[in-house]
Every structure is written in structure tokens, then in C-alpha cells.
Amino acid sequence: MKFSEMKTLTSRQLLDFVDNCKEDLFKKRVVMSLHKKCEHPHKFKILRKQIARAHTLIRQNQG
Description:
α2 (11-35) runs antiparallel to α3. The mean pLDDT is 91. The chain is built from three helices and no strands. The protein has one domain: Helix Hairpins (Orthogonal Bundle). The protein has helices at residues 3-7, 11-35, 42-62. It is mostly helical.
């Protein structure tokens, strides 16, 4: 999801998005630890950045 799309979401939707991203990140880490190999290792970095962007927007909406 692009940052401009994230700006249109409410805080509750952003929190749900963060939860989904964290679940995806956890699942990918488990698969990687079990198989010692990951099909798309660049997805880890993308998911972490999306989580950070969502947290930034949540903080901006609060203040």
C-alpha cells in the first residue's frame, strides 16, 4: 500500500493494517526459520517500512 493511500485510512483501519503486516512478517520469519530459505527476502524490509509508516500516520492523527 502506498503512503498516499495510507493517509486516507482512519486510525482504526491503520491499526488493523499494522496487525495484518505484523502477522505476515511473523509467518514469513517462521517459514524462513524452518526452511532456512525464503522465496522473497526483500518482503521483510517492505513490511517493516509499511509498519513504520502506519505508526507515523497514527501518531500524526493523534496529535
